[in-house]
Design brief:
There is one protein chain. This protein is an alpha+beta fold and 790 residues long. The protein is 41% helix and 12% strand. The protein contains 24 helices and 24 strands. Strands 2-1-5-15-16 form a 5-stranded mixed β-sheet. The chain has a 5-stranded antiparallel β-sheet with strand order 7-6-20-19-18, with helices on both faces. Strands 3-4 form a two-stranded parallel sheet. The longest helix is centred in the N-terminal third of the chain and has 55 residues. It is elongated, with a radius of gyration of 40 Å.
């Protein structure tokens, strides 16, 4: 009998009604669970699809990814000067990377690289299990593919954060990466992007950084050093921590042997080598750098002062192909400059040896006087610019200091130093150009005599010549050859010339730094500040027949694909007339042969040049040129202290020999050329001492001018005696063509901002063979009476 049949009808009815309700409740729970699972699965699937889509976009970015590569800068012969870069990186093809180096990385980082699909799940599970058991931080289980995803962060946008989500994202991208690229492509990109300490990114840059050679030439022992750096690059650097580096290298070699990548014999031989054997020492690197040879670190340059000026010119908004900071340091440009490596080495050797010799003598003098603490290394600059047709303005050598590591200030392009007598050729140029109408020529005579002028502060200014003597009537040629100060001042003081006219000539030939009005007549003595590079450009204008050419540092620029994006074009403009430039050049040939520049005689070629020496020999110059090159030499102290006292501390004694030694080296193998005389320039035979027509010296004259035929001395009368007296007292208004009243001191804006008394240019001079007897220097209180008598 069915037990339920024994129940009362009411109980049976309640029981029957309860059973369907319980069944429906379980169904709802099950249905709810299924909905949740489906939602979770859908969400997970959606997230996975989203991550796959993201991964695909990252792969597309990686396909077009071009790692930032530094821009290399070269001399004109192709010698590497250095590299502008965020981090040192040289891209190489996998076929160029030694097999031992590839195996070393595979053995150390991912020996199953060619077997897995980008991720090793078993390695990941093992790492997680070890972490759970030990409680330590999760150890790495990244494959080379996963490391590449992380190293190419710029393209993949996968961060380096140590989080589970980042690791998952990295794995997804790695899986997709393996689908799109071959194993060799992945390995090649990895070996070019892996960071290996210091500033080295990639195996080629690391090889140069540590071993001073390409990775192509690494031995087995050296190959094993680089993957040993990968886990903690700066902690295992062989040049800083050789013991740690050797331990890591031996571990890599052991892994290579155990995994069958090298033989037992190769392992035994490599492990016996000391890790420091192949390293480039700091001393070797410094020696190589001084010789202009390899071993370059990032942003380290040979001829640093030149390279820095080239960088500034490229980044200038006026440059025809302005290069941005990011392009320069990451765009992979190849920049070819105008620098001639042979001339640069000659310039550095010549100038720096001369400065060292000067320092040795100065140190000895100070030690004898018990003042050794006052010793300061002397500074200098040398610049050489090409004058040859089609190359005008190209800077071939530039030395801006003695040591760019300790002094970044560039004397060649930043120092503002007084020009001294080196400015006089341009004063003569202004005077001779005006002589087309006044008849003034190089053969005319001006009296070298006491000159005085009352300044605005009621102090009498009385400039002197170097020897404090006056030489009576002298020709303009002789006055320039012997650098006579008084004649230069008198030329500026002439009504048709004046300071503004001289200033305009200086500006036209290349002096860009402003000359203030307060300089007044002392512009003829070079009391204003000039930049050495501008000084060189101005003299090159004379050498180029009066054509101004701006200085050029960059010859051409190639982009990372080898396309030429910039080519320098020589541009010149006629600053002064060709015949005038030649006449001044002819005068400067006399300066270099028999004048203050006679110590350049060791350079036996046609040459023109001018010395310059400022007050107390604070600055000494020699500025000269040939038809092929213009070169200027400056020597002085950075704090503007005097170099010394006397004739031994002049441009002729100190700077001219340096110039001659360099120019001898610069002209090796070049034909001897003379300066070409324009057809409009006429030659006359004159008497050298009197300047009168008739004699044995061939002087040149601008068209329409000629030497004097009469014996009477050419003497200028600028104004009447009454007006001169008033001006000497400082009470007369200035007249057209006359310089403004000046004080007996002028600002000498040099690199140190020191103020020096004027006049500041002094040169050693010799008396001519036949001149009037020197006039006695008048007493200051008797100057008016003396002026009336004379």
């Amino acid at each position: 009998m069915n037990p339920s049949s024994q129940l009362s009808p009411s109980i049976r009815t309640r029981e029957d009604s309860a059973r369907p309700q319980i069944s429906r409740g379980c169904g709802m729970v099950f249905f709810g669970i299924m909905i949740i699972v489906a939602a979770a699965w859908g969400s997970g699937l959606g997230a996975f699809v989203f991550l796959l889509e993201q991964a695909q976009s990252k792969i597309e970015a990686l396909e077009s990814y071009r790692p930032k590569v530094g821009s290399r800068i070269f001399a004109k012969q192709g010698d590497l000067l250095g590299e502008y870069t965020y981090s040192a990186q040289d891209l190489v093809n996998l076929s160029e990377i030694p097999l031992n180096l590839q195996k070393a990385f595979l053995a150390s980082e991912d020996h199953l690289f060619y077997e897995h699909k980008g991720v090793r799940p078993i390695a990941a599970i093992s790492a997680i299990r070890d972490t759970l058991q030990s409680g330590r931080r999760l150890r790495g289980f990244s494959t080379i593919t996963m490391q590449l995803v992380r190293n190419a962060e710029e393209a993949t946008q996968v961060s380096r954060d140590r989080t589970v989500s980042r690791k998952f994202q990295e794995s997804i991208v790695a899986l997709q990466l393996e689908r799109e690229f071959t194993k060799d492509e992945i390995l090649e990109l990895y070996l070019n992007l892996v960071f290996l300490g210091g500033s080295a990114k990639g195996v080629e840059a690391a090889s140069w950084q540590y071993f001073g050679k390409s990775c192509r030439n690494l031995s087995l022992a050296e190959c094993a050093v680089l993957p040993g750096l990968a886990p903690s690059p700066n902690a295992y650097r062989p040049d800083r921590y050789p013991e740690k580096a050797q331990s890591r290298r031996d571990t890599v070699l052991l892994l290579m042997r155990n995994r069958g990548f090298i033989t037992e014999a190769a392992y035994e031989d490599a492990v016996q080598q000391d890790v420091t054997e192949g390293l480039v020492s700091r001393e070797a690197r410094t020696a190589a750098k001084s010789e202009g040879k390899g071993y370059w670190g990032p942003n380290e340059f040979f001829a640093w002062y030149f390279v820095e000026e080239a960088r500034k010119s490229m980044m200038d908004s006026k440059f025809d192909y302005q290069v941005s900071f990011d392009e320069l340091y990451g765009g992979g440009f190849e920049i070819y400059t105008t620098l001639d490596m042979n001339m640069q080495r000659a310039a550095e050797d010549t100038l720096l040896n001369a400065l060292d010799e000067f320092d040795a003598k100065k140190r000895e003098q100070l030690e004898k006087a018990g003042r050794s603490k006052e010793f300061l290394p002397v500074s200098g600059a040398l610049i050489c610019i090409d004058n040859r047709d089609g190359h005008e303005g190209k800077v071939r050598a530039l030395v801006g200091g003695r040591d760019s590591d300790s002094q970044k200030f560039n004397n060649a392009t930043q120092a503002l130093r007084q020009a001294g007598s080196s400015v006089k050729p341009f004063v003569w140029a202004a005077a001779l150009d005006m002589g087309r109408t006044t008849g003034l020529t190089a053969a005319h005579r001006i009296v070298d005599e006491p000159f005085a002028r009352m300044g605005g502060d009621n102090k009498l200014w009385q400039p002197k010549n170097f020897d404090s003597k006056f030489h009576g009537p002298v020709t303009l040629r002789w006055a320039l050859e012997k650098s006579v100060n008084i004649v230069s001042i008198k030329l500026v003081n002439r009504p048709e010339i004046g300071m503004p006219v001289v200033r305009s000539y200086l500006k036209s030939v290349g002096f860009k730094y402003p000359i203030p009005d307060v300089v007044g007549l002392t512009i003829g003595l070079g009391t204003h500040g000039v930049i050495p590079l501008e000084q060189c450009v101005a003299y090159s204008t004379l050498a180029n027949g009066g054509r101004y050419a701006p200085p050029t540092f960059v010859e051409k620029i190639l982009d990372r694909d080898g396309n030429k994006v910039y080519q320098a074009n020589v541009r010149t403009e006629q600053a002064i007339k060709e015949d005038l430039a030649y006449v001044v050049t002819h005068l400067l040939e006399g300066v270099a042969k028999s004048g203050t520049g006679a110590r350049t005689r060791t350079f036996d070629r046609p040459r023109g040049g001018k010395t310059g020496t400022t007050n107390d020999s604070r600055d000494v110059w020699f500025c000269g040129f040939t038809p092929q090159f213009t070169c200027i030499v400056w020597v002085g102290y950075k704090d503007n202290r005097p170099l010394g006292r006397g004739a031994n501390y002049t441009g002729g004694r100190m700077a001219a020999p340096i110039w001659a030694d360099f120019m001898n080296l610069a002209h090796q193998g070049l034909p001897v050329r003379a300066f070409e005389k324009p057809n409009s320039v006429k030659s006359y035979a004159i008497d050298r001492s009197t300047g009168r027509l008739g004699g044995s010296f061939a002087e040149v004259f601008l068209e329409g001018t000629a030497p004097p035929t009469e014996l009477p001395i050419y003497m200028e009368k600028n104004t009447n005696e009454s007006l001169m007296e008033q001006e000497l007292l400082g009470i007369a208004p200035s007249t057209d063509g006359m310089a403004e009243p000046i004080t007996d001191t002028v600002s000498a804006p040099g690199s140190t901002g020191v103020v020096a008394p004027a006049p500041v240019n002094v040169e050693p001079i010799e008396p001519p063979k036949a001149t009037a007897a020197p006039a006695k220097k008048p007493q200051k209180r008797r100057f008016r009476d003396w002026f009336r008598r004379n």
